[in-house]
Amino acid sequence: MSVIDEIRRELAEATERLLATAARLTDADLRAPSLLPGWTRGHVLTHIARNADGCLNLLTWARTGVRTPQYASPEAREAGIAAGAGRPAAEQLADLRASAERFAAAVADTPAEAWTTMVTGMRPPEHPAWYVPIRRLREVEVHHADLGAGYGWADWPETFVTRELHDTLLWLGGESPVSEVVARDPGTGEVLRTWTGLGDGPAVEGTPRELLAWLAGRSDGAGLRLGRPRAGAEGTALPGVDRRLPVPPHWPKPSPAGLPAEPPSSWPPPGTREERS
User: Fold this and answer.
1) What domain range is 75 assigned to?
2) Which of 25, 149, 201, 255 could form a disulfide with 178 if both were Cys (CB 3.0 to 4.6 A apart)?
């Protein structure tokens, strides 16, 4: 089993959850605001569908060796979302399903040697094609929660939370607003993993889910705990604590830098999934 098999299974399950939510939404529901500023739920569903096609473009690049941009341009991406946002619910659902099926078929049809091809999205860094399905899974899970339709970050699967927190801390690097991140088991409080040397801000600790939701801009950080506050740090005041949580940088980057060229057996590597300090 490779990481491709692992992600194909997770993505199929995440897509079915998203489609089930979308199937319950009416035309009026899609005109209502989502949790993303300035976007209705119709904008979010259209974006998820067009992202599937954009990720398919990257797999076409990997399979053919012909540079195929994820989107023709940033302007074309925005125009496509705006054009599709007002469609009826039935049309949105059909598009969401069809685009997901096209991407799933492309993953299945990609030959083993193509997964090492280096591709890039709208922003650097470039990354091997095996990471494209992980990017697609991220879009499905995070934007499903952005619909504000009964599925939230508290519902993200543990495997997704583990992977995304790992990758987020990999690419955060010098952009980190905190010096240390401590992930604790939500039941026992035991330290699962500690990341150090990240920046010059305070240390922050919480459950992996709380940490990821905050770093992804989907939570104000309620439940997180601070240590060694930086003088003059700006951000959200934590309840009951006379300190402020720094504002995390824009999330996410397309991928961490320095990914292995060959698809690993699993991602993140097994030794980093629950690494005690």
Assistant:
1) 3-151
2) 201
